[in-house]
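Hi C.,

You asked whether I'd gotten around to modeling the 320-residue construct. I have! Everything is below, sequence then structure, no commentary in between.
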Amino acid sequence: MRTIDWVDGAVEIIDQTVLPAEERVLRLHTVGELIAAIQSLAVRGAPALGVAGAFGVALAARIHADDPVALDRAVRRIESARPTAVNLARGARRTAARLPLGPDAVLAAACAIRDEEIAASTSMAYRGADLVVELCGPRPTMLTHCNTGGLCAVTVGTALGVLGELHRREQLAGVIASETRPLLQGARLTSWELGRWGVPYRVAVDSAGPFLMARGEVGGVILGADRICANGDVINKIGTYAHALGARRAGIPFIVVAPESTVDTDTPAGVHVEIEDRGSAEVTGWSEAVNPAFDVTPYDLVTAIVTDRRVIRLDRGEKL
């Protein structure tokens, strides 16, 4: 089952806002509908957002084929729909470069991005599984944060794809899924995917992760990224930094799994990344709230970064 795809002239997505209670497929026919789906997190996850950006430009190329001003405006709206993950704007810009060749060429480029992300997920699963066994030993219990399965990456996933591969190899004792506030992507989405795969898991409240590590219940931390800066700083769902600090204190590996499309060598460090704030309404109805969607984990807290092409051991001083 694909998180996002092009089907009969429209973009189809799995609506992640209603899982696990309901499995609903949305058909998006306009750029406005796609942007609304991105901003509401009906589609989310860096690789899937890259595909969404690409398909959004394909929609725009058909709708505004005779209006270059409206077409340019639509592309810029897609690029900026969410600011933190690099894949969204990158996917939109890559397909927009094909606009002079016509709508069919744009759609072909968008489908190529989709296929590349699918292939990348499979490659990351194999590379990451080998690394986890090397660093964490046979059959560890791994803690993961947010959602990094097929829901974030068309199919298979990034970090969760690694855990699925370990389970297939019978080299995984179980998973602790951090609930991931404020929208509970871990409790709702990761648990749903792990359950479908038959992987033993428990959901942990967000603040429990470092304590569980200190108590020896976690063999390693594995999660994804929405952007990896040139120096190795990792931008990921809020709470990632706390898990990295807990892993360092407990002396266990902290592994980041993300495709090369998430590596942003044009951004020197995390301090230069705009961190999206989701607003108070997602958290509370009676006071103002601080609700950053992401945080920055400094590179020196990261053991290794796994992409679809390579493993970078930051703990050994290797560079991106």
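If it helps when you're writing up: The chain has ten helices and 14 strands.

Thanks,
B.
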